[in-house]
Fold these 3 entries.
Entry 1:
Amino acid sequence: MYKHHLLSVITIIACAFLFIPLLLIIITSFNSADTISIPLDGFSLSWFGKVFASRSLVSSLRTSLLLALLASCIGLVVGLMCAIAITRKPGKFSSFCLDLFLSPSLIPGIVIGYVLFLFLVVRLKMKLDYALILGHVLVVLPYSVRILSSGLKECDETIEEAAMTLGCNRIQAFVKVVLPDLKPAFLSAFMLSFINSFNNIPVSMYLKGPGKNTLPYAMMNYIEYNYDPTVSALSVMLMGLTLVFMVIIDRVTGTGKGSRA
Amino acid sequence: MFLLLPLALVCLFCLLPLILSLVPTFTKPVFGLSHYVAFFKDSFNRIIFQRSLRISLITTIICILVGLPTSYYVSLLGEKKRRLLNSLILFPLLTNAVVRGFAWISILGKNGLLNQLFLSLHLTEEPVKLLYTEGAIIVGSVYLFLPVMISTLSSVMERIGMETVEAAYSLGAPPVVAFFRIVVPLSFSGVLVAGVMVFAGTISAYTTPTLLGGSQNMMLSTLLYQQSNTLADWDAASLIAFLMMLLSLGMMKLFNVLASKIDQRGTEHV
């Protein structure tokens, strides 16, 4: 009853603006014509086949998946250490550290990429592969720190103490009692880290070596020289991946809240 | 003890490189702002700097104008609808920036869908130049950051609570008046915070200006990449990097302080 029709009009426009472009990509990816056009000439799945026929796209997809996996795992381990240290000893220093760990997410990505390139590659002559992984760990660290530390804060410390009075040592108590409770936080931290590393361009474009490409950058190159629905088809697949991740995150955090309540 | 490794990682590989590359722009060869003065004397640089500011500002304003009513509307919906709409709005946020840029290329391009539509309706004789303009960058940036604006403001709306709005209604305020006299002032600090996030994001984005702006419409981020990667001019690149840090981090700090000041004033009134 508090709704005004102007309000609904703006909301509908906003939602249309957000979804129509993605919808158009999905529709045109099934077009049999070799340009991006509507109405469709006919239905075809050939552009999806074209994605896998392109060697540069497939090899960059492999690079991106591996990189995202590695960076997210390292990020989770480092992030867990940060989260434990910060939540177990709250204080001024801890909140300062939290700000510090979250800071890479505030600095423009292209600046991070550039200064890492200048420092690690130009100055320290570090191997590009390591520099690339390191850069991505910095990109994903804020996500795992934020999610894991808020997950740890919600954990009941008395349960851990109870486990210790029942004969567990510190490490056993942590592994047997706290870690299982952190599972939803772990999963959503991993998913968000993975997506953000996978989608990252500014850091990758400075630190990827010659001849090595991450998928987003390979897509950018492809778009520069070709204008056909291959990228639409690839985009549809990536959207599918995003959707799967979102559903998993939703399930995990949803059930996590349910069991606690 | 657990802090040591992460601290070392962030300090060594994030702060130290930043300091080492950005401080020399003030100290080498002589201490002072001489590099910056020279940078802004060049009209080419000045145009890019102004363009970056202009595009980010317009993007922020559009995001606020569209995002504020939308998030208010979403907050009025029932639990189930609200959750669905929220995750729908989040979806583009998690989609690759190249995919989102590509979507707009295929819409705005010379043979793009919009031009196809115009031609078939005989609105124009020749394709209109929509892509590779500042307008295209703005559209792409709004597309990039509108979800950020809406999702940030949605949590602000939840905190406001609808009791005050209900009170306004029961006292006879029409919806428009209630929106502008209750919702807008109460969410103002949230709008500032979200707005500066959009501003900083737009000014730091690289993919969108590259894909939609082309080489004629460079922004600071594309200039930084050109200086460092194509020309290997580290001095110029570091200078631009510092300007970008100043514009994004500096503005964020400033506006967050401003927002918390406003919040305090609000509680004092109560």
Entry 2:
Amino acid sequence: MLSTDDILETISMIREECLDIRTITMGISLFGCCRGDEAHLADRIYDRVTTRARDLVKTGDEIEKLYGIPIVNKRVSVTPVALVADGASPDTFVAVARALDRAARELGINFIGGYSALVQKGFTDGGRTLIGTIPEALSVTERVCSSVNVASTKAGINMDAVAELGETILKTAYLTRDAGSIGCAKLVVFANAPEDNPFMAGAFHGIGEPETVINVGVSGPGVVASAVRRAGECSFAELAELIKKTAFKITRMGQLVAREASLRLGVPFGIVDLSLAPTPAVGDSVAYILEAMGLEQCGCAGTTAALALLNDAVKKGGVMASSRVGGLSGAFIPVSEDAGMIAAARSGTLSLEKLEAMTAVCSVGLDMIAIPGDTPAAVISGIIADEISIGVANTKTTAVRLIPAYGCKVGDTVDFGGLLGEAPVMAVRGGSPARFIARGGSIPAPVHSLKN
Amino acid sequence: MKAVISVVGRDAIGIIAKISAECAACSVNILDISQSVLHDYFTMIMITDIGAISIPFTEFVDRMAKLGSENGLEIHAMHEDIFNSMHRI
């Protein structure tokens, strides 16, 4: 029997604490589109995506009504385009990006991910071409997201890619300068990129995935924050236990919705990503969870420890709640999408260096961080190299989504609007790694990658 | 199959009557009601059986929401699965 308290708790989570399903993402393989002429590749991709995801938005809306839980986004991720369009001209690559954008508009989804390349061991022709077209592709499209996997624990770090991406990010910032350099908000550089991540901008449909799949990303930082606040002055063990149980409940929502979506769409269920993903909305902040745990402001001493506890407890609770967990599955710390992070960055408590430390214990990386528009490419590459090294050395996913906001300096605010939020421009430490970055080649894989 | 209907709003005469009438019209059987009036606020939770519901559940959700907004109440109908999945191992 359902108890009144349980019912009220669930209702309160949804109505007051911003519990929602952050995304239902359909992953679609584009490999079948390789067969045929180059001239019609973009059309084949458009047809495939719009056919398979035709009922995605409608189904999401139906499930939303059925369970009374908001399903905020419906999205699509595709096979990394560098693989699918390998051998094609740069113009064809951009045409594919446009086709993906059109498909997204036709479907009524706000983002489509997968304009991506996997170059962790070195460049394929397709990888090289795609990376070269990223600035243009992101400036002529609205809804396309791009990512490049430049490293893995097994392969090491492709430093040529890291060096190039510093330039790519600056160029993308320049080409989208009239929109707050928003192109950079749709570009992620990864180490150990997950193949089944449902969240943008890093979502792509991995090469080991089936033809079509449904992945769900839940979210509930507000729920966790409320639970922590209600718990008052309890011990660490009690705090961890509480977060674990709350994460269980949140993830169960995702599991329920994923199963229902899979059933209705006739598409296999992939994974639930149990990440705590904030939004700029009041009460939906990961930073506020850390502050509820006892930190004066996110970014002060103790932040990394608190985040480590949070991230671990979220995983432990979530894993029990779902039959298949994947994606990023941890706490997100995107600066522009978290009211508490924005406040902490503005007040100077939260620095880029502290964020880097935090990424060692949570799931995303240096995410949605605006830096001065005149940051040199080599410095951007240095920041990428640092973040990627953390991922490679610790066999975890790390990523960089930096926005060198054109024409902006420390103290300015860049406003992207909507879910991407607004970002205070953060300071980057001085000193140049140009000679280091220019060395060329790859940083070898760490010894502990030899697990056989 | 069950659904939970939650009602929150200013207390007024006839709330329960209106909601039960709507349920009856849709062949939804009310199994349990728990309600309280705190100060001027009315809150109610109804457990209902939607096994024989005569319209699609999503339409019932809309009808309940509309009834709510017409009477200054927030009425949400939710499928029991959401509560079961959250609170049971």
Entry 3:
Amino acid sequence: MQTLELLRQYLQAKASIDPGKVTPDAKLEDIGVDSLILIDLMFELEESLNVRVPDIDTRPTTVSELTQLFDSLAGAQLKTGT
Amino acid sequence: MTRRRVAVTGLGLTVPFGTDPGSVFDRLMAGESAIRPFTPDPALPNGTRAVPAVYCDGFDSEATLGRTTTFLTDRYAQLGLTAALAAWQDAGLPCSAPPEELLNGAVCWGTGLGGTRSVELAYFDVLQRGRARTSPMLIVMGMHNAAAAHVAMRLGLGGPATTTSVACASSAIAIGEALRLIRSGEADVVVAGGSEAPLTAGMLLAWDAMRVLARGEGDAAASACRPFHADRAGLVLGEGGASLVLESYEHAQRRGARIYAELAGYGASCDHHHLAQPLAAGQIRALRAALKSAELDADDVDYVNAHGTGTVEGDPVEIEALRGVFGAHAESLAVSSTKSMLGHMLGATGAVEALITVLALTRQQVPPTAHLDRIDPACAGVRHVARVGESLPLQAALTSSFAFGGSNAVLAFRRNVATH
């Protein structure tokens, strides 16, 4: 849930996107997150959560795909202790 | 076939005096200077004092452009986009959202340094503070054509969106290229202009190292820039933006637009001589090319808004060029440098001064060279409008922009006779 909160804060601060719209099922495109904003968003989440997203074939298209991606990275790093 | 004429139908600007062209012009007529002491953030190295500069501390990008655009743009683009949107609105053109696409509407923008502020701040974070990475937005913020792209996106302009970067002549050349697009029939409407945000620690240090920045502390900052003055001591850097909406007369008249003035001609040249020493012969070529392009005789010109930066070397060369082109008429040719009040906005300065020249023709008023109470004999031979503005009958006026690198650009404007 922490990732979702970060996401909401970011989108409100930088793109004036209503936090109420940032729900797990929401499509990123529908709430105003285009490819450019997504790149910046992923960068900011990497910085905040201290993780690095590896090169990925498919970019997340929904809020939950995005939060799951970061949660799994954070979890993996916890396990390996990095 | 008669040549297509070009009308100026919209004006917008972002300078410290505000965004209303009329009230900015009034303050210039009174000889009021916008120059104040400035301290950059992050600060200059220890021991370096505040420098006189022109800065838009009241400018609120988020309020005018929104949060998303603000975080995607450098300050230079914010200042420019704000001016362009104001000019578009002033022209009475439709601002629907999403905009109706104007397929042959174009953008001709000018900037010397583009998003240099964003680039410098990012490098500062990486090289000085040890940050490992830079924002992925740095590329689209730093690129020189960002302002033009945002203008085209906001206004739905589907023709060419170009950016010229020719140091201090950038936006004068952009406006000149806009004239060509309309004359040739490639565009009916062009949003032209320029913007610059050069007030970073690195830029100030670099300009200072060239020994061309004027000094002045406290209240003395206001009169730090003294073009043509016997004791002038350099230029003052400024940030800002200005935009002119240009249209073919046919297009403007068909929609019943107000026409401020006619953009009648454009001349450009290169000194091919030196990176930083202007040459009268090169300036003369640009002045004569502008007159020819406008089908004006030298005697037809009543006012020249000079480049006049206030440097010891530059000002006399410009007056020499004016004497060379205007001959006996030079003595009665009104000349002023509004940089005495608004500083040198580098790539934006040509657009700012084009806007001022248009308003001079509209109002039949010539703004002054502020603080000019003792003319350098080397700068004599023209009719300097000094200290405060004057009401004068004006039919045609020029504005000059001369750049490092020796590139020269002169724009010619004519009073719009149709409205008088």
